[in-house]
Amino acid sequence: MGMNIGIYIYDQAEVLDFSGPFEVFSTASRVSGGENPFSVFLIAETEAPVSARAGYRVIPDYTIGDHPPLDLLIISGGVHSLEMNKLRVKEWINDQFGKVNLIATVCTGVFLLASAEPSILGKVTTHWEDMAELRAKFPNLEVVEGVRWVDEGKVISSGGISAGIDMSLYLVSKLHSIALADKTARQMEYFWVKNT
Q1: Residue 1 has what pLDDT?
Q2: Residue (of 104, 106, 75) closest to 90 by Cα position
Q3: How far apart are CA 40 and CA 149, in angstroms?
Q4: DSSP letter string over the chain?
Q5: Are 7 and 74 in contact (CB under 8 A)?
Q6: How confident is the model at residue 193 (pLDDT cuts 50, 70, 90)?
Q7: Which of 170, 110, 113 shows the shortest CA–CA distance to 134?
Q8: Opening angle at CA 71, ends 70 and 72, nearest 5
Q9: Where does residue 66 rank: exposed (0-12), middle (13-18), buried (19+ CB within 10 A)?
Q10: Long-range contacts, 116-121 (Cβ 8 Å, 24+)
Q11: Is 0.90 surpassed by the pTM of this model?
């Protein structure tokens, strides 16, 4: 049975923040030789279509109330200010934090995680444009610049947009193998930037 990977999306989410990781994990399963190590799907607050950045409309597979148990939750970034103040969403993220093996954020998705789970400490990263705001809002976090992603054990965060693809390939290497991550990047014709 493959690992369940849920990607949380919401209105004004950045398209590549969720589409990039979705492509990585679905491609990894496709090229794995029949093993299908990952089952990846989109989760939203409700079953209504989500209007992502620039009007890109997406129908979620599940809602926060009816999705299968997750092994990995990925929170996409985007215009996050309204989303991070939704009590129901924060309670769900907090609940998932206690259940999942790993939780990852792309871009400003880290704002949602930090507001829902204030006990998080350590290093994180986000889009370069949002680092000052992240430091101001969550001074308990050490915001790291100049990296594509940061692995702090249970919490893995990435920079903006395309950095989420690099982080997802890293997660494939962490959860399965470097060989499958490299094979996935090659299949995607993507030059994987590995952290230095």
Answers
A1: 63
A2: 75
A3: 20
A4: -PEEEEEE--TTB-HHHHHHHHHHHHHHHHTSSS---EEEEEEESSSSPEE-GGG-EE--SEETTTPPP-SEEEE--BS-TTGGG-HHHHHHHHHHHHH-SEEEEETTHHHHHHHH-TT--EEE---GGGHHHHHHH-TTEEEPPS-SEEE-SSEEEE-STTHHHHHHHHHHHHHT-HHHHHHHHHHTT-------
A5: yes
A6: confident
A7: 110
A8: 95
A9: exposed
A10: 116/84, 116/89, 116/90, 116/91, 116/92, 117/93, 120/155
A11: yes
The residue behind tokens 């982080």 is 167
Q: How many residues does the chain have?
A: 196
CA neighbor of 93 nearest in space, from 107, 77, 73, 108? 73
Amino acid letter, residue 179: A
Round to the nearest angstrom and report the end-to-end CA distance of the chain. Answer: 33
Kindly give, in sequence order, each residue whose CB lies less than 8 Å from that of residue 22, ignoring residues fewer than 6 positions away: 7, 40, 42
Interval 119-137: pLDDT, tens: 888 999 999 999 999 999 9
The sign of the torsion formed by the CA atoms of 142, 147, 152, 154 equals positive
What are the tokens at 151?
């692995």
